[in-house]
Description:
Layout: E1 3-9, E2 13-16, E3 62-66, H1 72-79, E4 84-89, E5 106-108, E6 124-130, H2 138-149, E7 152-163, H3 168-174, H4 186-195
Parallel strand pairs: 3-4, 3-6, 4-5, 6-7
Antiparallel strand pairs: 1-2, 1-7
Amino acid sequence: RSSGLWGIGTHHIHRIGFPYRLGCRRRSRRGLCRAPVHIDPDRCTDPGRHKGRPLRCTTDMSFLEIGCGTGHCLAFLQYMQVNEFLGIDQDAELQSVIPASLAKNFKTIDVWKLFEVGAEIKTFDRVIMLDVFEHFTVEEGSRLLEELKRRLKPGGAVLLRMPNASSPLGLQYQFGDLTHKTAYSPGNIRQLAIAAGYKCTE
């Protein structure tokens, strides 16, 4: 597969297929096209129905999306009637793109600010990073997973999607963007998760 989606829980990590589609999903980050958020209900599928999905998401859980871009995933969570969710992105220009209905669920902040001494400590059931984790170095990725582990509620999990460097089809996505700092395959993302203190099974 050209891309991989991994669920990293406090007790497990699985590589799984992408569990839902959001119609045209354009990223605003790194100079790419901005587009208004549009959710097509006919194309949305419930992550809860995805075969092999380890995350067991429910609407009463709390979600954090890091690098939320124009808010497509946030709109999906809203559409699925999730009560508590927050998206963060360091791009201040997104304030003018995020729909008004999602404004209260969006914050412009650098991810490392979440972990500074004195910052508000909030925990989440699920943390989502779609096409974001590869923009960190290995050292940064390890630190990020360690910090997030302390922000997870009991039974919490981290959901990652990035280009699959072990797939010939995935290499064009990994190396087609100069801001990608690390190439991941199912094997080395599992190694990184274990090093960050996660218990992993396949």
